[in-house]
Amino acid sequence: MLVAQSLVKTFNGTHAVDHVSFTLKEGELFGFLGPNGAGKTTTIRMLTGLLTPTSGEVWIGPHSMQKSPKEAKRRLGYLPDKPLVYEKLTGREYIRFMAELYDMPDDVLEQAERHLEEFELKDAADQMISGYSHGMKQKIALIGQLTHRPEVLLLDEPTVGLDPKGARTLRDILRGLCSQGVTILISTHLLPIAEMLCDRVGIMEKGHLIALGTLAELQAEYSTSAGLEDLFLQVTDPGQRGGEA
Question: What is the CATH number of the domain that holds 230?
Fold first, then answer.
């Protein structure tokens, strides 16, 4: 459903992302991990079409992001780590605006009402977004992205600003979407959430994808029974990896 094919992004002669490739299947929830500056956000922006790769290609379903960007983006939802929402709208007005932007039927708004209740935003839905906390803006932006029923959803640090209950609700919603066939990539520094939530993970470091697989596959590869957090530290520590590039 999503294919990143040998993506490269160069800034001032430096590779921020260096030949990164992976494929996500329908209904998969994929954790995209790595230390700060590893190239995760740059990769995600290439996946969304916000950045043009120096080389390589992105496919969303049958559509190339480089050759058929409109068709690819119609299948895609994206929530950045600092979502930009129209703060002079109420939450409910913003959701309706997003639905109308994609010319979606009215039943989408019924689904959005359910999400408002799940995220405990129903009482604030008719208040101006300018008065929302960061966590509330995260939630309303996600609901807005779901209005056009994306087949692929990219989330960059979606748990930032969410309290534990909000993070649990997000987890339940994402797993529900995956059960309906939506493919989700989630970037997060909260490794316990990634371990609990994701089917597979990819670990970036210095622009390279250095590990890819299920937790069990990575445990076998690195000869450890450690959880994802300890395994991540082992994989991203050159001393622990025996000097591998």
Answer: 3.40.50.300
pLDDT in tens, 102-140: 888 888 888 899 999 988 999 999 999 999 998 899 899
In the DSSP assignment, the letter for residue 199 is S
Residues 34 and 94 in one domain: no
pTM (2 decimals)?
0.89
What the block records as the tokens of 146 is 């779901």
In angstroms, the CA 62 to CA 26 distance is 13
State whether 176 and 66 are in the same domain.
yes
pLDDT digits (tens, 9 = 90+) for 71-99: 999 999 999 988 889 999 999 999 999 99
69 and 87 together in one domain: no
Per the model's pLDDT, the better-predicted residue between 84 and 61 turns out to be 61
Q: From its phi and psi, is residue 154 left (phi > 0), alpha (psi between -120 and 50) or beta?
A: beta
